[in-house]
Design goal:
6-stranded mixed sheet; alpha+beta; 17 helices; 755 residues; 11-stranded mixed sheet; Rossmann fold
Amino acid sequence: MPLSDNEKRDVIKYLESGKPLPEKYRFLLFDDDREVELVWNGKTNEVSNTVLPFQTIEHIDEPRSEDKKSSQHTLFDTSGRQIKGWTNKLIWGDNKLILSSLKNGPMRKEIEAQGGLKLIYIDPPFDVGADFSMSIEIGDETFTKQPSVIEEVAYRDTWGKGADSFIAMIYERLKLMYDLLADKGSIFVHCDTRVNSYIRLVLEEIFGADNFHNEIVWQRSSSGKTISRNLSRDTDTIFWFSKSDEYILNPVFQPLSDTTIAMYSLDDGDGRGKYRLYPLQKTGSPGPQTTYDFIDNNGKVWKCPRKGWRMKYEKLKALENDGRLYLGGNTLAEKAYWNERENEGRLANNLWNDISNLQGSTPEIVGYPTQKPEKLLERIMQMTTNEGDLVADFFSGSGTTLAAAEKLGRKWIGSDLGRFGIHTTRKRMIGVQRELKKESKNYRAFEILNVGKYEREYYVNHVSKDLREEEKRQVRARKEKEYINLILSAYKAEPVESFNTFVGKKRDRLVAIGSIDLPITSGLIQDIVKECKEKKITKADVLGFDYEMGLDFEDTKKQGLDIQFKKIPREVFDKKAVEKGQVKFYDVAYLEAKPIVKGKGNKKTVSVELVDFSVFYNQEDIGETEESLRPGGSKVVIENGQVIKLSKDKKTELIEREVLTKQWTDWVDYWAVDFDFENRKEIVKVTNPETKEEKEEWTGGYIFENEWQSFRTKKDKKLELTTSEKEVTASKCKIAVKVVDIFGNDTTKVIEIKI
């Protein structure tokens, strides 16, 4: 199509400035066969090709007795621990990097060896902060855990520009999922009224409209609540697409409705139970074999209906001889017995109104705000997978998909950005293992993984795509400097240069600062230690918003270094608090455990007692909270590592403070022990970027083998503080102790003992 002079001038202007042409010029300048396309600001077909290794943080396999009769007994050692075969994966991190690393990295071969991903179910976030504000129980009180800074950054990226940023987020991830999905695989995307129209169009563009199978409407509640100038919203939408037309589809049934069950009201008292009547008259066109007069065993003649009978004469007579015909007055009908149908149900349709949302008293509830019922996921899995198939959920939340998969004999991969979600899932899956163990059923070990060796350039992405590369670099550098200066100012440190890992100095201690949007990693700590040794540095502080799972914070002391690890508080973004010097940086958690050795000679045992644990969190300004309280109101806050309930008297308006964390154990939600920490090296597969060859490398770390654990649940809030006894034969060993606090943050300590 010829361009006007104004359009030509616009094109030249955009090209000279190095900016991309507006979308309309694609249709003016180039042929495009697509009649309809979803377009949004900044749309690109590019997806991440980043490949990062997966670091194994914890390996969990409930000890069990080996079942010699099991077809899978070769997978386990004599104690029942899994020794080979697929190990389920629970991965903490940004799912874009996880998906990219799964697609392009060495684990792709492991996935394909299992037949590929036969099912992906995702329930992505629909609103800012909705999935990271968690309810935490302390005694009889409940308070809300705020999202971490890393979580908030992720949500700001998702919703910062409204629908544009959400669509861009979900588009790239669905593209990666498409590549990972097996040819016979299906994907189910759970959404609500806020985003379902966008997601449907994105799915059609990626998977193709021909591979759309259904829009499942899940009636999660029937509240009947009156909403001002609106109707109550009681349903969610689940879109079902496949990768090809050769997808797996198994028949699944929904329970019969109460109305249907009530129809089975007749009973002859002959022991065959209740039944209902089905008419025998044909509804379609009459045929020669079904057009006849029927003579019953008493000689009565039943005239042929206008369109004939539903069946041939012989079948109708067989029903009579079996006592399945009702012959009363002018009614001839078939008896359908309830006991022959009660376990059958009816074939499922796309209205799922027989699975209610979780209620407060449901045992399945784990305290996660967006938790879905397991029955919902079980139906999806039974419909589109078979036993032994691999399924995945990359927004796994509380782990409902994974729990359902384990119980149905499916293998699984789950991932989530929220540390609390990963921890919640860890406890839940241990509970599933114990449940299956009690029932003498098979289950698999699972691993908790980090997306390892993060590189900063992958995360500095808050830069306009319209800029040239040099301009992007300048903006990134400026943002990086502003961020570092902000943290240094709050920490009362001065900037320094000429260091690789250190950016500041406070008195006689150098200062390293972690990124705003990723945790401090073992790789970064190794770099810090290396620079300290090279430049004879003995004292340093490491500041981070979050820390990678599985770090041993005391390991640097063993190397003769005085390195303090501290949490960056949220208050650093409050300019007034910084100016007034009110921002406090707290040490990461403190952990103390004591080994107990018993016995003589070669028959010795060791157990571990958890002796002390402390954290130093702040959440909300206690002074502002007191001022905002209404008379008679109360609120739970966290100050200097204490959970405090504030109450304002209705009459006097005096404030009462009650400390809820009366003991250090109140902060412990989960703890576990590896009695022989260095028995399993962490080996990762890495790919040479030039030769594309894969090789295995030892990271220098060890995998935490979970051999004993104790944790709180809603049913049982007790916590054991001493482990069971473990037989030992070595003269010395290293024991790793892991504690996870009520916020989901973990602390690990390695202690060396001589037997």
